[in-house]
Amino acid sequence: MKIIFLDIDGVMVTSRHMLQSKKYFGHEFDPACVRSLQEILERTEAKIVVSSSWREGRTLKQLQSIFEINGIKNVVGMTPIIEGAIRGKEIKEYLNQILNIGLEVDRFVIIDDEEEMGELDDHLVETSFETGITRAVADKVIHFLV
Predict the structure, then answer these.
(1) 48-93 pLDDT, tens per residue?
(2) Both ends of the chain: CA-CA distance in Å?
(3) Among candidates 32, 2, 14, 24, which has minimal Cα distance to 95?
(4) N or C end: fewer C-beta atoms under 10 angstroms in the chain?
(5) Cβ partners under 8 Å of residue 53, min gap 6
């Protein structure tokens, strides 16, 4: 299995889109980022695990619904919330949990606008809050996963 650990703010929700959209409601992803993510998913057959702070106070079903409204259906999980931990530690814990139930992860990548992932820094493809997933970011992610 291939996994994309996905942040939302600065990855799918961008300042560029918020400024351009006069009717931004908070759950609307930047359409350019959606197209880039859809291409990544089509070319890699990866699954999405949400690592964003958006998972706080939401169920997996609620997150899946937000993504589906935006045209994305590959959300299969969310990382655990570990108080005071960096995101990389939460991702590592998720990987340990799925290994313990017998699932194998062939490759994984982290798409995030935060640059600190601890020992998982080598798996990070960084975005900017202004533009999110660009064509260049998509190319890096695809290269990483294939």
Answers:
(1) 999 999 999 999 999 999 999 999 999 999 999 999 999 999 999 9
(2) 11
(3) 2
(4) C
(5) 9
